[in-house]
Amino acid sequence: MVDKKAEACFTCHASDEPLKKLSIADRTRIFTTDSCRVMGTINPIYNEPSCYEAPCHAHEPDQAVLGVIDITESLSSTDQKIEIAKLKMLLFACIAILCISIVVSFFVRTWVDKPVRELVEATKNVGSGNLNFIVVNNSADELGILARSFNNMTKKLAEARLQLFQSDKMASLGRLAAGVAHEINNPLTGILTYSSFLLKRTANNSDFHDDLEVIVRETKRSREIVKGLLDFARQSVPKKNNIQITNIVDRAITVVENQLSLNHIKLIKKYDENLPDVYIDANQMQQVLINLIVNANHAISKNDGLISISAKLISLPPYGITQIKNALCPKGHNLLDHTVKIKSMPSIRLQARVNEKEGYINIDPIYGKNRNHYGLKIKTNSAVEFSCPKCNASLLDKKEKCPKCGGPVYFFEVPGKGLVQGCAVKGCEWQYWQSIENEGQKEYIEIRVEDNGCGIPQENLAKIFDPFFTTKGQKGTGLGLAVIWGIIDNHNGRITVESEIDKGTTFTVRLPIAKS
Amino acid sequence: MKTKRIIAIDDERVILDSIVKLCSAEGWHVDVAEDALSGFKMIQSNVYDLIVCDIMMPEMDGFELLEKLRQQEIRIPVIITTGFSTVENAVKSLYNGAIDFLPKPFTFDELISSLKRGLNYAKIQKQVASYFFDSNKKNAMVSYIPCPPRYLRLGYSTWAFKENDGSFKIGITDLFLRTIENIKNIEMLDFDGEIIQGNNCCQITSDNELVHSVLSPLSGRIIKRNEHVIGDFTLVEKDPYFRGWLYIIVPSNLEFESKHLVPCSSDRI
Ligand SMILES: [Zn+2]
Ligand SMILES: [Zn+2]
């Protein structure tokens, strides 16, 4: 009998189950001997007719299984081959991973790393205060979007900084005015109370009386000046909307119509059709227009008085009309000079040196105009060395040459709006402001208020928009022209005046059209 | 008649000196304090008819004093005066309970007319109080007509009333008119003029030659002016809330400014 517990027999005779036919997989087993793995295959030998019919055989016909062939074979050579194959596979995998990484890193470098590096660079730049930095990436993927939103953020930041700059200026002006008012009004109270008290008590003494009257009158005048300062300092923030300017003009006309007809003045309106909206504070703009019309009314004393108001759409290049409202040296000193005004706009004050001579030159704040004020004599065609009046930093751009005359180029920074460059040679009028030029032509609504009144003397025209400027016997009420100027300026618009004695005056207001 | 007692609080000596001098000419007694804190102590321990107080002072300012008086229910009328005479300060003072705002620098006449109104105000206030305490309601009379409900008032001096078309009618309260003598003249602004809340919108000259500034309750453009008043000043005194209105204006900053107005309906008891 067979030993059922023998290793080779176990498969067929396990668990005392009846014998059955097994598949080849079940008949094969792998086991480990001391030295190597071995594969064994069991194959039962079934009884066949040839086994019991042949004369040489002595098996009984009723025996089913004659025996078992148990083949064992050492797997050591096979195992060796497997080991080699494994190593090869590993090696190949390593090479493949390396290759893929190289390719991927190449693509990452070109598509991700470089743009990210640029963004990091831009972040550093913006962080250090350079808000003109622009990330160039026009791709449509996420990084392109990121770059564009980054640029957008920088732009917004620059705008906010500019606004902060402005509001800070306004706030400090307000603080100054408040301080001045408080400080001056107290001593003025002393003067005014005592002098007016004395004036009352000396009503019968005409000698004192007249002198005291002068003191009281002049103190009251000082009081009005301080009050004007306070009013000027607290110009309210405009509340802007997209509005048809002609509606505002019409509303303004309705308010003053009565006055005009009393004065027998004819009013002509000329509006272009289909004007685009402007983005304005309707109330403030109405005030501006009312005041311009009232001023025109007051300027007319003759019988055939005529005021004509027109509104039309114009398109202008930035050159020759854009006002430079801020200017900084490379170290951040403010170059704007409020004491020297050119066409009533604060100018840009630069230190200038020519042939050992030093002085100041005030540059025209209108980009492209060259109505500069020269604080020293300079011959035409001689080059000026410009520097910052505060820190002496050179304002000459060594790398650039004037494209018109080849002379040296000066520059200064406009916060949020890049560099303004100009030719440092006297007589050469070249100026270039890239970020403004890039914005291209702009559309404006131009409103002209024209009268045929007495006109404004030439010497007054330059100062007419200055705060506190008044002419003797001026009848105008309400807002001064300085406030009007401030309102238009707040709307990024411009107001100009032309006048001829006894012919009339024209105020021109230009407002940028609303972005749709 | 009892001497009027006034306290002036200001950190500037010259202001206090001038107030003392000017008031003595009128026969009033003035105590002075150089800061609001000691001023407040004096108010608590003395009897005053009127307080004149600066806004900007070290430690405690004029607004804080107004608040303290309100908390302690001290009902002495306060006139606020300041060198920083902005519209905001004027309106804020009136909203916080001051009866008048006197911008520095002021003249003799301006100070006296403001103080006289203040003293008259105090007198009327006492009459009203005694009316409520007098159970017989015999010897007391209602000394002024409060402004009608649905009207808004700036301090106690002017009122504004919204018309159906969104414009506002403005005028002077009866209480203000009672604090001045009979009207001799009213100087009004031109129509189409601009008025600013808390700023002078018309000047009343009273019989005693004093000029009284009327502070506008709202800012805006005058679209109509009551010409009947120009023809007959007594109309304002006779019917201050209806036929005696001054201007109709288109308000320019209503949303912001209406916060500083008091609805007259809250005055009713
Ligand atoms: Zn500098
Ligand atoms: Zn050049």
Write a structural description:
The complex is a heterodimer of chains A (516) and B (269). Chain A has 516 residues and is an alpha+beta fold. Chain A has 11 helices and 19 strands. Chain A has helices spanning 10-13, 24-27, 49-53, 76-127, 142-201, 206-233, 245-262, 282-299, 434-439, 458-461, 481-490, and strands spanning 28-32, 37-46, 65-74, 241-243, 266-271, 278-280, 306-316, 336-342, 345-354, 357-363, 373-374, 385-387, 396-401, 408-413, 419-423, 431-433, 442-451, 494-500, 504-512. In chain A, strands 5-7-17-19-18 form a 5-stranded mixed β-sheet. In chain A, strands 8, 9, 10, 11 and 12 form a 5-stranded antiparallel β-sheet that branches. By secondary structure, chain B is of the alpha/beta class. Chain B is 32% helix and 26% strand. Chain B has a 7-stranded antiparallel β-sheet with strand order 10-13-14-8-7-6-15. Chain B has a 5-stranded parallel β-sheet with strand order 2-1-3-4-5, sandwiched between helices. Chain B has a 3-stranded antiparallel β-sheet with strand order 9-11-12. In chain B, strand 6 (152-154) and strand 7 form a beta hairpin. Chain B is globular and about 50 Å long. Chain B starts with a strand and ends in a 6-residue tail after the last strand. The model of chain B has no long low-confidence stretch (mean pLDDT 87). The interface between A and B is medium-sized, with 37 and 32 residues. The complex binds zinc ion (2 copies).
